[in-house]
Amino acid sequence: MEELVYTRTKAVFENAVSGFCPGCMHSTVAKLIGEVLEELDILDKAVCVKGIGCCGLQSNYFAFDNITAAHGRACAAATGIKRTNPASLVFTYQGDGDLASIGLAETVSAANRGENFSVIFINNGIYGMTGGQMAPTTLVGMKASTAPWGRKPEEHGYPIHVCELLNELTAPYYLERTSCNNPTNVRKTKKAIKKAFQNQLDGKGFSLVEIVTGCPTNWGTDALGSLDFIEEKMLPEFPLGVIRDKSKED
Question: What is the pTM (predicted TM-score) of this model?
């Protein structure tokens, strides 16, 4: 007798075929988000506010309410949606350029106010769709289309650590950095997303899950090479783990 152990999440269109580059982890994160929404039985209450770029491509896959905000303004849009529809599960889905560069003011302000929504932050260290420009999270020495000789601290500054930056604020309730570079970390990422969503349902305030991912196309690697780059380069700069969890203080 066969036992059903897995079914495709209904949160992703049934006939959707991924248009993301091989080795990109957006598809994995989309699946995890969908599974969590179904497990919490809130798929019909979910609203995703997407950033511009590769994150915006999720419009082709998310089979639940979602909008694309102006570049960098996802947290501002999510604030309005959540305040006017407090029963909804509202989350933003943003890349590093959208969240930490163009939208840094909106991100910090929403976190500082303790807005009761969740943020899924995709950190691949570079602008993806728009041409491989240097992002706030680009590593020192890492080449980009706007830094062909590599990021130089004296010229470009250092990589921004978003979780640690927001941890300096009083209001944020939960901040964690994860990855999807191996099965163990995929499971940890799903657990973190579920915790961030549950915090919102419980009215705890602002939660952010930063997911360190790859961008093989703009990194100039293949899919397997991007996994090595994450392990050897990205994770030493952006160590995984819980940065803040106020539930442990409650």
Answer: 0.94
